[in-house]
Protein: Leucine rich repeat containing 52
Organism: Nothobranchius furzeri
Amino acid sequence: MRFAPQPSAQLRLIACLLLTAGVTASPAVSAGCPDRCVCDDQLVVQCAGQHLTSFPVNLPLATRQLIISNNRIVELPPLALNYLSDLVYLDCSNNSLTEVSESTFGNLRKLAYLDLSFNTLHRIEDRTFGPLSSLVMLRMTDNPGLSVIHPDAFAENEALQVLDVSRNNLTFLNITSLIAQPGLRSVGLSGNPWSCQCDTEDLSLWVHLESFKFQGATVCDSPADMQGRRLGEVGIQLRTLCHQTLGSWDYLFFVFIGFVIFAAGTVSAWLMGVVMVLYERYIKKKDDQINLENEDEGDETGHMSRGRKDRNNRSLQTSFTV
Ligand SMILES: *[C@@H]1O[C@H](CO)[C@@H](O)[C@H](O)[C@H]1NC(C)=O
Ligand SMILES: *[C@@H]1O[C@H](CO)[C@@H](O)[C@H](O)[C@H]1NC(C)=O
Ligand SMILES: *[C@@H]1O[C@H](CO)[C@@H](O)[C@H](O)[C@H]1NC(C)=O
């Protein structure tokens, strides 16, 4: 990433080297330079502000820095880009890019700096930056329609130190994978229409707890009662607000369950009572029936004993009634 202070001197030097050493440079290096671009001996290809509408062709394969900013390029062709496996620095800012995907950067394992600012990206999918294992700085600001960044978009960028997603159209950012990045030291979130509701609680608390990492004023845009408040200041409020809501639902649930248990208990007790009463009546009826039957039987077989008993009973009754 060094910039040659005296390009003419450097050029002369490399010319001398090439002349004296013969053509020792690899074919990749001597493959020429794209139209309207300037290629130097430091393997820097500079194509900024050249009214390009497509990705430059005929790039030296050993290119380490590629600057294609301030053009109207609409697409980064994965095939052409991924030949540049030595690329360390890629500036695509201020173009008309609408899409980047996992295959766009599939082979750029040495890339440390990527700038996608001032484009027209709409969403960043899972693993878009996954192959960029050396990525240290990612600038992706000023994409006015960029409203979705997948939770795992940066999950594999363990070298990431600086992330700037300022001035996009983000209302929400899932920080689960970002918060786990060990080296992350600067995050730009300002100028997005943050929606400060319960799902933004984690982000707010992160901004609150590690405010030194966050650049610029980051404020809520919605809901109405949160508008204009700093993102880092609403975290605590969201925490109580959102968990209280959850708690009251829990309480409601417990009250409901309690009522159900109470009602079930009452109903089953009543049912049991009814069953008991019916059963008792049934038993009584059966006993009476058996007694009647026994009496009938007694008339025929146990005549004597029963007759005596009955007589005793009757004498008892008469003595009582007297
Ligand atoms: C974007 O590039 C155009 C030229 O293509 C230039 O006029 C404009 O100032 C640039 N905008 C930014 C924000 O750099
Ligand atoms: C930003 O997102 C909102 C929806 O969240 C959408 O209505 C609006 O059109 C978007 N803005 C731009 C510039 O795309
Ligand atoms: C963030 O993403 C993770 C994994 O994709 C998910 O488990 C979690 O619920 C998400 N958090 C929010 C607040 O949506």
